[in-house]
Every structure is written in structure tokens, then in C-alpha cells.
Amino acid sequence: MGAKLNAFRSSVRRVFGISGGREALAHRTSRVLSQQLERAMNVIAVPLILEGASAALLIFSLWDHAPRLILLIWGSVIALSIAASIEFYRRFMADKARVARIRFWLRAQMAHSVITGLLWGVAGSVFPFFDSSIVSLVSPVTAVVVVALGSWPFYAMWLPGLSVFSLLSLGATGLSLIGSYFFTNQLYATVFFLALIAVILYSGLKLNELMTSSILAESENRKLLQRLERERNTAEAARREAEEGSRRRAAFFRAANHDLRQPLQAMGIYLQILRMKKTPDTAPAIEQLSVCAGSISTLVEQILALSRMTADDFTVHRELVSVSALLRALASEFAPVAAEKGVSLSIRPLELRIDTDRLLVSRALRNLVSNAIKYCGSARPEGGEVIVAARRCPAGRVRICVYDNGPGIPREEREKVFHSFYRGSAGRSGPGGYGLGLAIVSAICRRLGIGLSVGSLLGRGTVFRMEFGAAERSEPAGVAPARRAAGPEAVQPLPRRVLFLEDNSAVRRSVSELLRSWGAEVVAEPFFSPQLTERMKAFKPEVLLTDYDLGEGVPNGIDSCLTLAHELRTPLPAVVLTAVPDGVIEEAWRERLPTRGLAEMPEILQKPAGEAELNSALRRACESGSTGSGPRSQAPLPDFSRYPA
């Protein structure tokens, strides 16, 4: 059995590729042998039934031809053997540590094979000589053959057991026949019997090899499945970790977006107040503070924009965008800036439409045009030229290019200019900047699937190309440029009653002081509560200025606006001064008011907003409120039971 185990271990080593580790190999071998023996136990019922039936028929057929005491003793031993086999099966299947005890169970299996082989070998070699009748010859031989043929699948699971059983049962019977009938006319029966022995042994060998290969393959497949399961679990854990990381980044950027804009808003308002009170001695310092505040505001805005795009914390809203309208809007926006820098700005549009996100593409183009004007104005104060042109490409694609005749970009810097905070040689020696504008353009193009490339000649200029997918060949009649929000106008007095809701105390104080400087009567509160309603009925606000996010556990700006309009029974125009993205506020408005209700959609200003922007937005809101037609439907009130008193 030791040689067999060594051969079996070699097979396991070959199949599983185990090059070392004797303990690991021994455990793997024991496990496979345990599975092999378990399969043998699953078919043990067949040989046991055949043994019992064959023994009963043999005793019955020889009852009148052989000593009955011997038959009874032999039958009793067969019965005990069957009972022992059943107990062997029960204990083996109940043994949870049978892999570790496989040597014990293999020895028990070998003992079972020896005992069973001896019992049937006695029947085949002794019983034929009890009497010279044909019954005494045929009955034992037939019984042994039947038992052997029915039992070989069970013993073949463990090849040494099959060999022992075959030699002791069939071998003894065959030798008895050869010794008795070799020189008689029964020679052909002897040859047939020996051939039968060879067939059984050969079939058992093949079945053993087949079972061994099957178990080894099954073990290997199980190992592969376990590895796949581990890899799947690892991938799933990595996916969940990435999602959680993305969620944390998004939450961080939202918080940073809100918390960074708040002090910038307050600082900008206080600078406006200082500017109104400046003296010849303080004017230079105030102007420098304004420049620094503007630089910080720009830097924060660019960092937050780039962070959101990198973290995919924004939604793409695709639509058919008119290329001509897009370029005309750019020309209208940047014409005053270009004229101030002494740069000629021109556009060459195409009358077609592209499928993209209007706001994101506009932002990318504004960054490119702003950069082009800035560098042209610096390098060629009297002869700068910027061209924004659209052109058709093969396969129906369209390309929008921004050309300038600025200083150009060296070849080694053309890929680096899209990296965050990278400023090329022209940027370091020319106009100021933070190296984020082109990084934002690159992030937008990646998000929208737009091809982005750059070409440049030193001293002659640069072109940035944005290539879009297939476009509609022409625009339908009546396509108009996208509506643009009205720009800030000159600051004017605002003798209005204003309710101001803002949870940040610095912003609340600064904006309140600015509003009062315009002649407004102001009630400033951190958030709206039911107790504020009675005050507002007496105060009768003409416009609501509110942040959207007013803190945890209190109504947001949209809830406050709708509730006040409902309670006052009059249209309440509102301006939302916030750091929350416009889309979030618009979605909240749609959810709270499925149909047109007591108030119009508030105008949204993103922090930090300048003095002129805020003044213009409030005046427009007041003008729209004065022409309103009154309440049109009942808006549901928020559940104030979940808010503090």
C-alpha cells in the first residue's frame, strides 16, 4: 500500500503542480483518497445486496448436497460480514475527520476486502467438492462470479482492495477449477473463467483510473472555483471601496464647495463696503485686497470645478446644441474683454447641431478663448487676433478650433499644458494664472468623449481643437441661440423690505450691511421657522434672499420660499444665494411644486457673487413680483414637526 500511496501522490503532485511542501502534498493526497473512498461507499449497497442474495441462493441449492452445519456456519459469517460492512459505512460517513484518518480507513477497507474475498474464495474452491453432482459445481462458481461482477465497481474505487478481493475469491475458484478439470473436457470453461478474471481486473483498473482522474479534476475545478470566488470577492470589495471612496470624495467636494464659498462671499461684500467708504489713503490697499480676493475666488472656483469633474460628481445633460448659437454667445461674451486687451476676436460658425452638454462645452470653450485672449494681449498688445471656427470633418464629424497668434507653445510642453497647476514658459513669463484652465478643458472633453488636441508654432501662435461626433447637417428653421442670464448692471438703490435667510453668521452680517447701504429694510435670520411667519405678516417682505442649505434639521431655501408664499397668500419673489449646484436646487423645486404654484422659480446666484450681481438679481426679482398675478394653487407645506422650534 505504501508504493500505491507514493504513486498516487505523484499523480496529485503532477495534476496540482505542487513542487514542494510535503505536508501540503500529504493533505491534498489524503483529501482526494477520502473522496475516492466516499464514492466507493456510495455504491456499497449493490455488493451487499448481491452477497446476501447469492449466499441465500447458494445455501438453498446446496442444502441437500453439502453438510448443513458448514453451510449454516458459512452463511452466518457472511451475515456478520454484511453487518460489519454496514457499520463500516455508517462510521466512515459520520467521521468528520476522515481526511486526517484516511490511513485507518484504507486499512479497514483492505481488511474488508480480505475477509469478503476469503469467504467467497472458500465458497468457490471448497463447496464444489462436497458432491460430484452438477449442482455442487455450478452453484458455487455461479455465486462467486455474480458477486465478483456486482462488487468490482465498489472495490475498484481503491485498487489494492480490488486486487485482494479478486485474487482471494476469483483466483481461488479458478485455481480449484484448473486443478480439477485441466485434463478434462471442461478446459474451455476454465479458460473462459480465467478470461473473466482478467476482464474484471482490467475493468477495475480502468474504472479506478477514471475515478482518480475525475476526483483530481473535480478537486482542481473546485480549487479554480474557489480562486475565482476569492477574486470575485476581492473585485467586489474593491468596487465597493471605490464607490465608497467616490461617495466620500463627492461629499467632501460638496462640503468644500459650500464652506469655501461662504467666507469668500463675506469677504467680497466687506470689500464692497470698504470700497464705498474708501479714502485716498486707503484706496490702494483696498484695491490690492480686491485683486487678491478675486484671485482667491478664481482659484477656489477652478479647483472645485476640476475636483468635481475628476471625481465624476456631476451629471451630463446631453442635448442638440446649435454650433452657430454657441459661437455667437462666445463672441458676445468676450468681445468687451478682447477689445480691452487690444485683441481682435472673430467667429466662423457652421449652421449645424451637435449632441453634447451645452454648459460643459461652453465652459471648455470659454477657458480656451479666455486663455487665447490673455496670451495674445500679453504677447501682441496691438496686433493680437483670436479666431473661433467650426469646420466639418470626414464621417460627419465637426471640429471647433480656437486659433491665436500668441507666443506659441514649445513641443515638449504641449502635453504638459493639460496637467493641473502646470504653467508653461509663456505663462511663467507672461500673464498670471494657476495652470488649471486647460486641465478643466481636458477633464470636460474626457467626460463628454470629445477629442482634444493642440498644435503650435513658436512665435506664430497656437490652435486648440475640439472634435465632436457626427452632427446634424443643418439646423431647422427657427433655432435660436441659447438664452443667457442677464449680466450685472450698475448698482442702484434698493428701498425694499428684504427677508434674508443665511446660516453663516459672517455672510449674514456682511450681506445685511450691504443691503442696508442700498436703502433696504432687512430682517436677517439663520433659518425659517413657524414663529417667523407672524413677524413676516407684519413685516410684509417684498423679496426673499436665502441660501439653499440652511443647516441640518431646518427647512431649506426652497421649502422656506414656498411656505412663506403660502402663509402670506401673495407671490414672494426670491433669490437663492448659494454654493449648491443649480441642478440640485431646480430638482428640489420640481419635487416640491409639481405644478406652477404660489411663487416663481427663484433666481440662483452662485457664491461668491459680486455687489452688482446681487443688486441686479434682487431688483429683477422685485420687478417680477410687482407684476405677479397672485396665488394660483396651493403648495403643500413641509412637515415642521421634524424641525426644531
UniProtKB/TrEMBL annotation:
This is histidine kinase. Keywords: Coiled coil, Kinase, Membrane, Phosphoprotein, Transferase, Transmembrane, Transmembrane helix, Two-component regulatory system. PANTHER family: SENSOR HISTIDINE KINASE YXDK, TWO-COMPONENT HISTIDINE KINASE. Residues 255-472 form the Histidine kinase domain. Residues 618-645 are annotated as: Disordered. It catalyses: ATP + protein L-histidine = ADP + protein N-phospho-L-histidine. GO terms for molecular function: kinase activity. The modification 4-aspartylphosphate is found at residue 547. It comes from the Bacteria. Its EC number is 2.7.13.3. Residues 218-248 form a coiled coil. The keyword Iron does not apply. It is an enzyme of class 2 (transferase). The chain crosses the membrane at residues 40-63, 69-89, 110-130, 136-155, 162-181, 187-205. Residues 497-622 form the Response regulatory domain. The keyword Ribonucleoprotein does not apply. It comes from Mesosutterella porci.
